[in-house]
Amino acid sequence: MKRELARHINLFEFSAKEVAAKTKPGQFVILRIDEDGERIPLTIANADEQKGTIAVACHEVGRTTTQLGRLKEGDSVSDLLGPLGKPARIEKYGTVLCVGGGVMVAPLHFQAQAFREAGNNVIGVVGATTKDHLIFLDEMETTCNELFVATDDGTKGYKGMDFLSDLLKEKKIDRVVAEGPIVMMKTVSDLTRQHGIPTIVNLIPIMVDGMGMCGACRVTVGEKTLFACVDGLEFDGHQVDFDELLARMKMYTTQEKIAYVFSEEEGRN
Amino acid sequence: MSTPKPKIRKDAVPMPKQPPEERAHNFREVAIGYSEEQTLAEAERCLQCREAPCIKGCPVEIDIPTFIKLVRESKFAEAAKKIKEKNILPAVCGRVCPQEEQCQAKCTVGKIGDPTSIGRLERFVADWERQHGCETPQKCPATGKKVAVIGAGPAGLTVAADLIKLGHEVTIFEALHKLGGVLSYGIPEFRLPKKIVEAEAEYVEKLGVTMKTNALIGRLYTVDELLKQFDAVFIGSGAGLPTFMGIPGENLCRVYSANEFLIRVNLMRSYDFPKSGTPICGGGKVAVVGGGNVAMDAARCAIRLGASEVRIVYRRSKEEMPARAEEIENAEEEGIIFEFLTSPKRLIGNERRAVKAMECVRMRLGEPDKSGRRRPVPIEGSNFVMDVDMVIMAIGRTPNPIIGQTTEGLKTTEWGGIVADENGKTSVEGVYAGGDIVTGEATVISAMGAGRRAAKAIHAFLMRKENCVEAEKTGEKQQNPRQQH
């Protein structure tokens, strides 16, 4: 199944019975489209054991994500590995604030559902750069007890995440879970630090194998170096070195452009 | 024995290689391999001595004199069959085994000159067979027993092949998208072409082993869950976890673990970027930290990716280097610079958080340590800064802890290995382990040896109630016509 969530953002449902049976919110898969393809990690947005499917949302930003975006209903990918990473810690905390940004709202929704089922009062925030990139609004509306919307340019809802500081003051929030762009997760963590609210960020850096072999996804958390693929994806947002992570995410920017142009030209020939 | 024998040539037939200036710019195989004439000439150097000390030097006990005798008679298909009785990966082992420490170290000819080049002969025979089609051996009658093998590396493939020949049903669970384990992700194309790994893994598949790739045990299924579906489980998950030094700056951009660097280059074919979608940093000055075969592999990949300068930084001297002499020589020929008695202290980054320099300290050798090698001691005040554009940490690999962490009652070591006896028996009944997951990082052939012993033990375990002879009497002999491929 393929469903367009926004321009260049799609939700894919893959038949993967064994993976679906084992998947918990917070876990991810690694997929490879074809023989020449790179291995990319995607956080799982839903798993349906009965149907034997898992869902991932993907924003077309480079070669592999664009190729993925071109897949049609009924197509398959050459490799799908999962579920990887540790499941998210889902407990009854009280009030949980789930802040999602961009394409990552989809996997965050999977967690929000689990928090709700665990008896939490769930406040959701759906964020995006602009109105047209907001996704999963209906789903989050249904799942959360309360929902806020924010865009970087203010085209819908609050402008930016600054409104959160008032929200954190007004409400008694027991736990914050953020999933989205690194800058957003950093902003949220900086805000909640002032209020001393435990904050979990879901990090999905550049990975190759996704099972602890390469260390490409290493992040500094407090004094320690951890591997997002096996120690995560959940980390303490107040301890993560976001600036280092941001730099590491940009390590292949030039090559990514080359790969994209190459594959677009190949596609035309 | 009274007839006088022709004099044995003291020098081995040299291995033809791509010239260093050429090969430093491509990923094609360095050693080209013997021609048929060269093979026959080298085979003549074997004394066919009765003691056959070479066999004792081989971890899987290949009948070396017999296969060499068949080579002399130009019976290459039969020679290949002889080797495959004991070794299912001959084209791999002929290339990457440290024969100089094993079979060839014991060779009688070695006392008067170069030992017989057993590895090169093995390679020729295996390559000949691959090009001319190989026979699928006969299997024992089906036992109805099922075995799960975790990891399609040298240990796992050996266990699987041995057990399927004995009539058991075998499924391999491989976490990566390709078979071969370290042979696919670790050893570079120019030392071990991947089509050879594919062909030898395919041979195991042809024997009837079910291959399940993209299946990470510990996440997709636990070992306990496998034990509900299978009568025995073998863990051959290898030593795939990278080690870092723990010095400041290791998380800067363009600092790689050797594992990441090699996985990108070998498994993901980054050298073929952008056709292959996986990028790699390259060019400029590269420092590789470490002195083992992995360090040599990483350095030699780096030079091929277009580095202007590659330095191997090793804290002891050349004599203590764990890498094979042959690989050190190859690296030297390709222009790799060695900085012995040097140890990194910290990595220094630029404004974009990419590594730009490495501060090192010079070392001297002190008293021998537990390993018997002289311990390197820093020389105070000898610190200096080396300009680098990329650093590769090749200081060892440890076992992946996922299986240990997710298997109830499975005893593990402090460093994350699985505790097993010499036959691979672990603390859990029906669960066996072998290869790097038990010993820590070692050789391909020692993992295969461990696989062979574990297969024997698993077979005995499966047959402990109704033994194999009984099964043969009652069960129908399976008709398995020999197939030519």
Query: Which range does the strand content of chain B fall in?
Result: 15-25%
Overall structural domain count of chain A: 2
Strand order, main sheet of chain B: write it out.
3-2-1-4-16
Biggest beta-sheet profile of chain B? 5 strands, parallel
Annotation field: number of helices of chain A: 9
Structural class of chain A: alpha/beta
What does this structure look like?
The complex is a heterodimer of chains A (269) and B (485). Chain A has helices at residues 17-22, 63-70, 105-117, 137-143, 163-170, 182-195, 228-231, 242-249, 253-268, and strands spanning 2-6, 9-15, 28-32, 40-48, 53-59, 79-84, 95-101, 121-128, 146-151, 158-159, 175-179, 199-202, 218-221, 224-227, 234-236. Chain A is α/β, with parallel strands linked by helices and 269 residues long. In chain A, the strands form three sheets. In chain A, strands 10-9-8-7-11-12-15 form a seven-stranded mixed β-sheet, with helices on both faces. A six-stranded antiparallel β-sheet of chain A has the order 1-2-5-4-3-6. In chain A, β8 (121-128), α4 and β9 form a beta-alpha-beta unit. Chain B is of the alpha/beta class and 485 residues long. Chain B contains 19 helices and 16 strands. The longest helix of chain B is centred in the last third of the chain and has 19 residues, at 444-462. Residues 467-485 of chain B have low confidence and may be disordered. The A-B interface holds A 18-19, 22, 32, 36-39, 63-64, 78-84, 208-209, 211-216, 218-220, 225, 230, 243-244, 247-248, 250-252, 255-256, 258-259, 262-263 and B 175-177, 185, 213-216, 219-221, 240-242, 244, 250-251, 253-254, 256-257, 259-260, 263-264, 268-269, 273-281, 352-354, 400-402.
